[in-house]
Amino acid sequence: MLLIDGTPHGTVPADDRGLNYGDGLFETCAVRDGRPLLWERHLERLHRGCRHLRIPPPLAATLDEEVRGLCRNHQQAVLKVLLTRGSGGRGYRPPARVEPLRVLSVHPWPEQVAERACHGIRMRRCTTPSSANPALARIKHTSRLENVLARAEWAADDPVEGLMLNLDGEVVEGTASNVFMVEGDMLYTPSLERGGVAGIVRELLLETAADAGIPVAVTALPLARLKQASEVFVCNSVAGIWPVVWCDGTDLAVGPVTRRLQGLLGAKDALAYVPEC
Amino acid sequence: MLLIDGTPHGTVPADDRGLNYGDGLFETCAVRDGRPLLWERHLERLHRGCRHLRIPPPLAATLDEEVRGLCRNHQQAVLKVLLTRGSGGRGYRPPARVEPLRVLSVHPWPEQVAERACHGIRMRRCTTPSSANPALARIKHTSRLENVLARAEWAADDPVEGLMLNLDGEVVEGTASNVFMVEGDMLYTPSLERGGVAGIVRELLLETAADAGIPVAVTALPLARLKQASEVFVCNSVAGIWPVVWCDGTDLAVGPVTRRLQGLLGAKDALAYVPEC
User: What was the pLDDT predicted at B277?
Assistant: First the structure.
């Protein structure tokens, strides 16, 4: 199911700047019982991205209506909202008057999400580095070739995720997730000042952990430190939290902080599934 | 004029990976008297990019025929070849069998190219950094949001170009060009090990200069050094060579090495215009 600028049979112009230059933004949401979860947060991030890239955001009422219409009949699905700077301009230079292109689509719920939330996943190390660029960091933009190249390093379903490091060997993110670890009684996640996407579930977890009295640090995390952690997990809007039980050759256990945060995410209506344990 | 997978009225699927992830490559060529200049070199770079990204290149005969057909009636124009990884896959993960999307288009020759080749251009300094990532460096891929953001820093036609620096303050490239400078009797251009596009004219100039007995160094170039150079110029496939007469507040003269290299490019059939002096 698809809506391009509100039309089910719309097309994408070949001169669209998203297609030509990766000049766009996107959001991926879990849908449960006909509605997108954490939608207010996704909308807010989309607006933040629009401000940063100076792309006019879609009218809230229009987007809301389209999203509701698309999600209505889906018990469990994935909603994607793609927004590009549209056509026009001269080369990289944006046009004076931007008319964005808006693509909304609903996709089948992926397999094994609930099972992985319970039993955990294996995560390998990617050799494709995560780019350092403060001007692009945190933004969920569509210039994501490095994530594609990182995920293309292996073809199998398992390992499920790949770890991307910056050129200093510090953990930045998973190819499609944010990374957390537990050390002592503290929760840690990489700083995204120079790279990586500021995930919605990451943001929610930072708040949730603080509210629950779990101290959190956002900091540089060398790979070696991650592998010595007592717990590691990845998160994104579809997965919620997936414990990591194997990281680049090192076995890890699913721990109590991970389980507690999974429960808290569920209580905050952030999960489209019930973990299958 | 446009051909999408060989069809004049083709469309771009909304799930194309170029649109969604910047998962593609492109070439921009100058067209003169019905044929694309330096076409063999562009084709070779496209193939290099395809190998690097593991996108199957188009059949040479097909592409050749399409390019020739499109360019045939154009005395002076710009040809763009865009190749994406097509549709499919799961998120960032490419499909097992890639069916690329191919978009060929011809655009009007831009104004003032010949005039700028003679009188030079002004080049400002961009604050948007050039990303450091050896896995993406040199490739003319479509994940170019940083170039868009750099060019979006100013709206006017003049300055014509913007200089992008890496996080160490070294010159990487112009937003849409490569950068050279002359110091003493040597020609210098930034190393592209960590970022920037390996331009066709840049590559041709490195060979041409060496053949002409002009010593060349590919090295790290701090901005301060560029501004003290005796000559600075930028190059790309449409511009050929444009002397830089003002760089981030510093006036520069058009010098003899720049003029000599312009002449040599002309003699190598690399220019679609005669410089207007």
Answer: 78
Chain B residue with Cα closest to A93: B151
Which chain A residues touch B85 with a CB distance below 8 Å?
Answer: 148
Buried b (16+ CB within 10 A) or exposed e, A182-201: bbeeebbbbbbebbbbbbbb
Q: What percent of chain B has pLDDT over 90?
A: 97
A 197-256 near B (Cβ less than 8 A): none
* pLDDT tens per residue across span B227-268: 999 999 999 999 999 999 999 999 999 999 999 999 999 999
What average pLDDT does the structure give for chain B?
97
pLDDT band at A9 (very low <50, low <70, confident <90, very high): confident
Peptide bond into B159 cis (omega under 30): yes
pLDDT digits (tens, 9 = 90+) for A91-108: 999 999 999 999 999 999
Using CA atoms, how far apart are residues B216 and A228, in angstroms rounded to an integer? 48
Determine the average pLDDT of the residues in A126-148.
98
CB atoms within 10 A of CB B223: 16
pTM value is 0.97
pLDDT at A120: 98
Q: Which residues of A139-153 are buried (b: 16+ CB within 10 A; e: fewer)?
A: bbbbbbbbbbbbbbe
- The Cα B169–Cα B175 span in angstroms is 15
Topology classification of domain A114-267: D-amino Acid Aminotransferase; Chain A, domain 2 (3.20.10)
| A177 touches B: beta carbon within 8 Å | no
pLDDT class of B211 with cuts at 50, 70, 90: very high
- B144 contacts B118 by C-beta, under 8 angstroms: no
Q: How far apart are CA A145 and CA A123, in angstroms?
A: 20
Q: Copy the structure tokens of residue A149.
A: 């190249």
Structural domain spans, chain B = 2-109, 114-267
- Whether the ipTM is more than 0.95: the answer is yes
Rounded to 5°, the CA angle B266-B267-B269 comes to: 65
- Span B2-109 CATH architecture: 2-Layer Sandwich (3.30)
- B12 and A13 within 8 Å at the Cβ level: the answer is yes
Under the banding of pLDDT at 50, 70 and 90, the label for residue B11 is confident
A17 touches chain B (CB under 8 A): yes
Label residue A133 by pLDDT band (50, 70, 90). Answer: very high
